[in-house]
């Protein structure tokens, strides 16, 4: 009997010397679970132009092109057909899980139209709604025509980035 007690005593001594305290083991387990859950949260990404609050209200019809540049900054792209147009393009995407592809949740094109005297003629805030360009200011969908053909490639371009 004394031999088996001696072996148990040494085994217990070795076990206590090399084992982690329970609280440390629990802390490691909780950290691993927390890190795993952190990868399961959704992320949102903003690409392109970020519209400052109140910027469009600072640009009345008839404002100069220089005033638009001061308030809005450099446009994403400029069109020069039928007068000049500044386009400010933005896109918001979301990824549900870290390894999933991004999904477009909002897409906007702010178009500022100028006349021949470089004065603001019209301001439009276009979005992508059910696959069609939608003007959020006048709440109308333009008929297929010249303006649609100019904006469609812009939407396709930023959708594939």
From TrEMBL:
Domain Outer membrane protein assembly factor BamE: 48-123
Record key words, sorted: Cell outer membrane, Membrane, Signal
Keyword Zinc carried by entry: no
Pfam families: BamE
GO cellular component: Bam protein complex
GO BP term, pick one: protein insertion into membrane
Keyword Membrane: yes
Gene Ontology molecular function, alphabetical: protein-macromolecule adaptor activity
Protein name per its UniProtKB record: Beta-barrel assembly machine subunit BamE
């Amino acid at each position: 009997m004394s031999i088996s007690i001696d072996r148990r005593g040494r085994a217990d001594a070795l076990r206590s010397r090399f084992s982690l305290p329970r609280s440390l083991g629990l802390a490691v387990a909780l950290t691993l679970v927390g890190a795993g859950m952190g990868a399961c949260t959704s992320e949102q990404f903003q690409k392109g132009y970020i519209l400052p609050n109140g910027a469009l209200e600072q640009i009345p019809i008839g404002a100069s092109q220089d005033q638009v540049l001061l308030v809005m900054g450099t446009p994403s792209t400029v069109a020069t057909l039928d007068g000049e147009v500044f386009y400010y393009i933005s896109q918001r995407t979301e990824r549900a899980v870290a390894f999933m592809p991004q999904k477009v949740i909002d897409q906007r094109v702010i178009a500022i139209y100028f006349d021949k005297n470089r004065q603001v003629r019209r301001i439009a805030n276009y979005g992508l709604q059910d696959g069609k360009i939608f003007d959020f200011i006048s709440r109308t969908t333009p008929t297929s025509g010249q303006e649609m053909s100019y904006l469609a490639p812009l939407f396709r371009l930023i959708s594939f980035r």
